[in-house]
Amino acid sequence: MSSDLDVFVGNTTLIDEEVYRLWLDGHSVAEAVARRLRGGVLEREGTSVAVLQSDTRDHYRTFQMLERLLHAPPRLLQQLLFQIPPERQALLVQRYYAFDEALARELLGKKLSKGTKKELDEVSARTGVGIRSCRRQFDNFKRVFKAVEELRGPLAENIQQLFLLPPALARDYAAIVFSGIWGLWERFWGFLGCPDPPFSSRDYAAIVFFANSRFETGKRRLQFLSFGDFAACAQSMMAHWSQGALAPEAADPDGDLPKSFLQDLKELKVLVSDKDLLDQHKSLVCSALRGKISVYNELEANFKALSRALVNVGGKLTHARDVRDFFVDLVEKVIEPCRSDKWSPGDLRLFLTHYTAAPRNLPGFRHQALWERYMAAISACLLRMYHD
Amino acid sequence: MPGKLKVKIVAGRHLPVMDRASDLTDAFVEVKFGNTTFKTDVYPKSLNPQWNSEWFKFEVDDEELQDEPLQITVLDHDTYSANDAIGKVYIDIDPLLYSEAATVISGWFPIYDTIHGIRGEINVVVKVDLFNDLNRFRQSSCGVKFFCTTSIPKCYRAVVIHGFVEELVVNEDPEYQWIDRIRTPRASNEARQRLISLMSGELQRKIGLKVLEMRGNAVVGYLQCFDLEGESGLVVRAIGTACTLDKLSNTSAFLPACNSPSKEMKEIPFNEDPNPNTYSSGPSTPLKNQTYSFSPSKSYSRQSSSSDTDLSLTPKTAPSPQGPRIFLFPSSPTLSCDSPHVKKSCLLLSGSSVKPLHCSHVSPVVLRKSVSFTEELLLAASGMGSGSAGKEGGPFKTLLRQQTQSALEQREFPFFTLTTFPPGFLLHVGGVVSARSVKLLDRIHNPDEPETRDAWWAEIRQEIKSHAKALGCHAVVGYSESTSICEEVCILSASGTAAVLNPRFLQDGTMEGCLEQRIEEASPPGCGFCHIPYDELNMPFPAHLTYCYNCRKQKVPDVLFTTIDLPVEAIVVGKGCLIQARLCRLKKKAQAEANATSISNLLPFMEYEVHTQLMNKLKLRGMNALFGLRIQITVGENMLMGLASATGVYLAALPTPGGIQIAGKTPNDGTYEQHISHMQKKINDTIAKNKELYEINPPELPEEIIGSPIPEPRQRSRLLRSQSESSDEVTELDLSHGKKDAFVLEIDDTDAMEDVHSLLTDVPPPSGFYSCNTEIMPGINNWTPEIQMFTAVRVSRLSNINPTNQTLNKNFNDLCENLLKSLYFKLRSMVPCCLCHVNFTVALPEDELVQIAVTAVAITYDKNQALQANKAPTEKSQQRASTDNEEQLQFPLELSSDPLSSQPFSPAKEALEGASSHTGIPAAQRATSVDYSSFADRCNSWIELIKLKAQTIRRGSIKTTTSLEKASPLAEGYLRHRSVPSGTNSTVSVVKMTPLSFLPGAKITKYLGIINMFFIRETTSLREEGGVSGFLHAFIAEVFAMVRAHVAALGGNAVVSYIMKQCVFMENPNKNQAQCLINVSGDAVIFVRESELEALPVPAPTAQPAGSAGDVTT
Question: What does pTM read for this prediction?
Answer without folding.
Answer: 0.75
